[in-house]
């Protein structure tokens, strides 16, 4: 709410920091060494991105405003996990349980998206570089993954390109895409948690736990944005 209602870059930045600090205990909720490592990676990456955002805001008086706002966009792209700044997201996601992963891929992207809409140049070549690289990297890198967590993460990176495209048109379009994405991601996440499936090779084994496999397949097709599923609707709108 602080980020959404603030006309000031500094207050929005404070909101971003509060959000990061509130998410860290969720990362640390499962007690294993991998999670501790990923939470430190998450913290350091977010801190670096926050420093870049605040530097962009402070240099607006010294440098050209457009260049400063591009620096802000650079910091926010790291926070979003958009390509080509996405590698931290994949390593953090690999060691998370499913529900924290869902929060990381949805709720944690809201604040940077609001700030991109408020403070960043939408028609700059750097903005389009982030959009196109997210769409391409998310789609192509997902092809070589066997881990279901990595697959969902690369899918999310690809969707970030769509979020930003929606934001470039209007805030309503971007938010419509975001909320429908959150709904269609929840179904496969809950099913994967229920079946405890970490790799694609376990797919034949889930028949025991899932009476109806087609539910999982339909939810994944919807996440891919194929008609006539719900995931196609926001892409059609854009």
From TrEMBL:
GO MF, one example: NADH dehydrogenase (ubiquinone) activity
Ranges that cross the membrane: 6-28, 40-63, 125-144, 175-193, 214-233
Keyword Protein biosynthesis set for record: no
Assigned keywords, A-Z: Electron transport, Membrane, Mitochondrion, Mitochondrion inner membrane, NAD, Respiratory chain, Translocase, Transmembrane, Transmembrane helix, Transport, Ubiquinone
Residue span(s) of domain NADH:quinone oxidoreductase/Mrp antiporter transmembrane: 6-66, 67-238
Catalytic reactions of this protein: a ubiquinone + NADH + 5 H(+)(in) = a ubiquinol + NAD(+) + 4 H(+)(out)
Pfam families tied to this protein: Proton_antipo_M (PF00361)
Cellular component GO terms held in the UniProt record: mitochondrial inner membrane
Superkingdom of the organism of origin: Eukaryota
Record has Electron transport as a keyword: yes
One biological process term in Gene Ontology: mitochondrial electron transport, NADH to ubiquinone
Membrane topology: Multi-pass membrane protein
EC number per UniProt: 7.1.1.2
PANTHER family attached to this UniProt entry: NADH-UBIQUINONE OXIDOREDUCTASE CHAIN 2
Functional summary from the UniProt entry: Core subunit of the mitochondrial membrane respiratory chain NADH dehydrogenase (Complex I) which catalyzes electron transfer from NADH through the respiratory chain, using ubiquinone as an electron acceptor. Essential for the catalytic activity and assembly of complex I. Core subunit of the mitochondrial membrane respiratory chain NADH dehydrogenase (Complex I) that is believed to belong to the minimal assembly required for catalysis. Complex I functions in the transfer of electrons from NADH to the respiratory chain. The immediate electron acceptor for the enzyme is believed to be ubiquinone.
Family: Belongs to the complex I subunit 2 family.
Name of the molecule in the record: NADH-ubiquinone oxidoreductase chain 2
High-level lineage: Eukaryota, Metazoa, Ecdysozoa, Arthropoda, Crustacea
């Amino acid at each position: 709410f602080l980020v959404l209602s603030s006309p000031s870059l500094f207050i929005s930045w404070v909101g971003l920091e509060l959000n990061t600090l509130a998410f860290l205990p969720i990362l640390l909720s499962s007690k294993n060494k991998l999670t501790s490592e990923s939470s430190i990676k998450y913290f350091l990456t977010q801190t670096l991105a926050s420093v870049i955002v605040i530097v962009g805001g402070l240099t607006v008086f010294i440098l050209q405003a457009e260049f400063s706002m591009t620096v802000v966009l650079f910091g926010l792209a790291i926070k979003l996990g958009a390509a080509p700044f996405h590698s931290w997201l994949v390593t953090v996601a690999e060691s998370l349980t499913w529900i924290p992963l869902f929060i990381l891929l949805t709720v944690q992207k809201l604040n940077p998206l609001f700030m991109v809409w408020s403070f960043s140049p939408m028609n700059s070549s750097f903005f389009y570089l982030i959009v196109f690289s997210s769409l391409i990297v998310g789609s192509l890198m997902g092809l070589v993954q066997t881990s279901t967590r990595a697959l969902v993460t690369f899918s999310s990176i690809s969707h970030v390109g769509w979020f930003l495209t929606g934001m470039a048109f209007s805030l309503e379009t971007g938010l419509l895409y975001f909320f429908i994405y959150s709904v269609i991601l929840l179904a496969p996440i809950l099913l994967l948690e229920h079946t405890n499936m970490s790799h694609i090779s376990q797919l034949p084994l889930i028949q025991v736990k899932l009476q109806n496999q087609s539910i999982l397949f339909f939810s994944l097709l919807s996440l891919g944005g194929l008609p006539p599923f719900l995931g196609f609707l926001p892409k059609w709108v854009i």
